[in-house]
Design goal:
The protein has 470 residues and is of the alpha+beta class. It contains eleven helices and 22 strands. The strands form five sheets. It has a six-stranded antiparallel beta sheet with strand order 3-4-10-9-8-7, with no helix packed on it. Strands 13, 14, 19, 20, 21 and 22 form a six-stranded antiparallel beta sheet that branches.
């Protein structure tokens, strides 16, 4: 067996110590024996540990917290991570000089100063990397094209926090994840949900590791940052939010974009599904706190010199999908709305007209919203997820959402051509606008055709966006 060099021995010793300390922290009796050690010995042990292990140790008790905050330990971690690279022939002397100079400032700082500096520098480094990754955008959607790479670099995942009426919390990491053309679908299911009757709210959070090593998969037990995206009240699961059902479950849609599935027999949770649009996804999932969502920067209105003629040059990208299957993915250009189209506080953008047969589009495949748990799976007919991205004339995202929707039988005959087959409609509403879609089922080809698609944009939103006065 070959001889280990001094550096290799130190690295191996450090790894073994980290394993030993982690093992001790999971064993109460051994933790007790560790905590009664003299501070000098503990500090020597801690000097071999990495940042993640040190943060975990700091959660054991007050004494270990203060020891794990030692500036001398953290300034060495900081210097190792962020010192500029030097040529090999001078590395030892230069490193020693740098450390000796750094030690002069250790006593001037409060305990924990260099730990905070290290954490802040790590977060800033990841943010700078993400900014570069997210710069290239898709010309059709106006959205970042490297979302998958951004998720990998940031280590981002999502969690839901179920809160009961006594404020007890149940935290669940996501079980399944799929990336669509303009959104991410995240799913949670379990055999051991808390009883629905005891729950009051669901918090949806982005979860990122505090420290991200680009060469390693983040550990599940490491320190993590929670960013609140949205909070939902479970008292809102009423008939007004019911959008579909099958023989096993009923599904409810809570805005923005949350789907809650309940077992029909027990009236208990079966699964939760979140649909997250790519627009500002990374910001919403990483820049908030555990209790306060990320706030968008103040909007500066775009100057529209031709606002008297209404809206023009808009571009719409629509993706209708479920379970990794896309039923329609298309882009519509040069949409416009004249001032005369304003009605009841909305400006009308006609995307597909029932009077123009050449615009009518089929939905491909058997329409249905796929769901699964650890035991059962199924598909709810006539439901799916709609991703909508509307770009203004300067190709900036004006309206973006990802939400489950459901087709309903139309109570009135269509104003368009006389088709054979049942007619349906889909409606969606939020604070920015409304979507109205009309479809017809063609018996001969067994497919749905979109014969009418209209967007209604809130005049309030338009005026805020452009500084106009419609």
């Amino acid at each position: 067996m070959g001889t280990l060099h001094a550096g290799d021995r130190k690295a191996l010793t450090g790894d073994l110590l980290q394993l030993r300390v982690k093992f001790c922290l999971n064993d109460f009796s051994m933790t007790t024996s560790v905590t009664v050690m003299p501070s000098e010995i503990l500090l020597k042990i801690f000097s071999y540990l990495d940042a993640v292990t040190l943060l975990c140790i700091g959660c054991v008790n007050k004494r270990l917290y203060h020891l794990a905050n030692d500036n001398l330990i953290w300034i060495r971690i900081y210097s190792t991570a962020f010192s500029p690279k030097r040529s090999n022939w001078r590395v030892n002397s230069v490193e020693k000089t740098a450390v000796s100079l750094s030690l002069l400032s250790v006593e001037d700082k409060q305990a924990g100063y260099w730990k905070k500096e290290y954490i802040a520098k790590q977060i800033a480094s990841v943010k700078a990397t993400l900014t570069q990754i997210l710069k290239p955008v898709n010309p059709y959607t106006g959205l970042p094209v490297k979302i998958k790479e951004a998720l990998r670099v940031s280590g981002l995942g999502w969690a839901i926090i179920l809160k009961d009426r006594s404020e007890k919390e149940y935290i669940m990491e996501h079980v399944d994840l799929s990336i669509n053309d303009a959104s991410v679908t995240v799913v949670w299911y379990s055999k051991n949900w808390p009883h629905l009757a005891t729950l009051s709210t669901i918090d949806l959070c982005g979860v990122t590791p505090v420290f991200m090593d680009h060469h390693k998969v983040p550990t599940k037990n490491g320190p993590r940052w929670h960013s609140l995206i949205a909070q939902y009240s479970l008292s809102s699961l009423t008939e007004s939010t019911l959008i579909g059902f099958d023989g096993l479950i009923r599904i409810f849609c809570l805005n923005p974009g949350l789907l809650v599935g309940l077992w029909k027999r027990e009236e208990e949770l079966a699964f939760v599904m979140a649909n997250l649009h790519f627009h500002q996804l990374m910001e919403r999932s990483t820049l908030g706190s555990a209790t306060i969502p990320y706030e968008l920067p103040p909007h500066c209105p775009f100057v529209d010199d031709d606002w008297e003629s209404g809206l023009h040059g808009y571009q719409l990208h629509v993706d209708m999908h479920s379970g990794g299957i896309s039923y329609l993915c298309g882009t519509f250009h040069n949409l416009f709305s004249k001032k005369g189209y304003i009605e009841n506080g909305y400006m009308k953008l006609i995307v597909i007209s029932s009077k123009n047969n050449t615009q009518h589009l089929p939905l491909i495949g058997k329409i249905g919203l796929s769901w699964r748990t650890d035991i059962f799976e199924g598909c709810i007919k006539s439901c799916y997820v709609m991703d909508l991205t509307l770009l203004d004339e300067s190709r900036k995202p004006f309206w973006c959402f990802s939400s489950p929707v459901c087709m309903h039988s139309s109570p009135r005959p269509s104003e368009g051509p006389n088709f054979l087959g049942q007619e349906y409609y889909v409606d969606y509403l939020d604070s920015v606008g409304k979507v109205h879609m009309e479809l017809v089922w063609i018996e001969e080809t067994e497919e749905y055709f979109i014969i009418d698609l209209v967007l209604y944009l809130s005049v309030t939103k338009v005026n805020h966006w452009f500084g106009t006065n419609y």
